[in-house]
Amino acid sequence: MKKPIIIILLLIGLVGQTQNKKWTLKECVQYALENNISVKQSELDIEMAEVEKLTAKGNFIPSLNAGAGVSENTGLGFNPITNNAQTTTFLSASGSINVGYTLFDGLRNFRQLQRADISKLSSQYRLDKMKDDISLFVANGYLTVILNKANLEVLKSQNEVTKEQIQRTQELVDAGSLPRGDLLEIRATDASEQQQIINAENNIQISLISLAQLLLIKDYENFDIEDEGYNIVDDGVSGRDVSEIIAAAKETRNEIKIAEQNVELAEIDLKIAKGANWPTLTAFFGYNTRYANTTSFTQQIDPDNPTITQQIGTVEGTGQAVIGTFPNTFPVEVGADPFVDQLYQNDGIGYGLQLNIPILNGFNTKGNIQRSKINLENSKYQLEQAELDLESTVYQAYVDAKGALKSYEAAELALESQELAYEYAKERYNVGLTNAFDFSQSKLRYDNARIELNRAKYDYIFKLKVLELYFGIPATELKF
């Protein structure tokens, strides 16, 4: 009886642990990379590129084909063995094996293999870029949840102060030291803060649902994140010159690598198109055989009268008869030879070389070459544009990170000033030197300063990580 109870308690404990699990940023990123549909599609693109590479390798292997056929003929037909017309019903079969090998085709097979390698590498770069983008999306969603939670903590902590002020103000009003209007003002502040707390809780839930949807997690109710231990971690990238970051981005970013691979693909396509102008030389070898179950006739010597004598002509001038002796034969119907014997008797082989020289094909080859040249020039322009776009994007990320840092530092100074002002207003209010409205306004400015500091902090963290990503730090190695 004890064992079932223990098992049930263990199961309840496991369920509770699962429901109380809080996801770290690293776990969220890893889960997204493993389950995101776009990532899976990019992985399929790599598998497809591998199939193309296998096909390109197959072009270097001889082609081997075998064929066989069976037919039954009734009526007048040609015997496939004797090649004589006869009226009968017979079964015939044939088989063949053919081997072909391309000796030279303008190096197109070799170019196709090169193209398959480049295409696979390009697919890998696209996958890596997809993972970087998704990692940033997850990090942004994660930091949004943390920001909303931090704002909620600010609102709750300040509301506790407000409740204490309500109690103290009530005592002072009852003692006649403060007018009742001050108590009403503090209570109005409390009601406004309660509304803000509800909105903040809703923002947390909405941001958690958005993050869960990004991770393809459907259990929204039990999904939560680890909201502690995330601070500003700068590995020194923000202190580097923007030109250094741009140079590193051009060497490491997948956008540039993809554009470079597209240029290489266009160059290979042009070589493949030009290869169609070259002659094609192929070798072939074929083996075939046949069988038929038809009967045939053969001439057999009469054992009783093996020879016959016949006049075959006359001697010119004398008119003397010329006599010849011939075998005395008569036709005898015989059955078909055995199947295996016929396969050996009727087989044959063929082999040789075939040369195809392109002369005129309606300008198709010339058109393909011109299209490939245009595509090559276009891919070069795309590479140039990708470099310009990356340079602009990195510069913008650099400016954003610098601006976010200044905003964060300004928010810290503003919070220090507002905290001092709030403490001063609080002291004056406690001794009755200021009214509840002025105190509430000072407290509101202090609350907004704390919330603004949270926003500036996590905004700087995100923009700093974007800058580090452009510098070449992998998304999975970013530190928070």
Automatic annotation (TrEMBL):
Alphabetical list of InterPro entries matching this protein: OMP_efflux, TolC-like
Keyword field: Cell outer membrane, Coiled coil, Membrane, Transmembrane, Transmembrane beta strand, Transport
Major location category of this protein: membrane
Segments forming a coiled coil: 242-276, 369-428
Subcellular localization, as worded in the UniProt entry: Cell outer membrane
Pfam family, one: OEP
Family matches, as PANTHER family: OUTER MEMBRANE PROTEIN TOLC
Family per similarity comment: Belongs to the outer membrane factor (OMF) (TC 1.B.17) family.
Protein name: TolC family protein
Organism: Winogradskyella pulchriflava
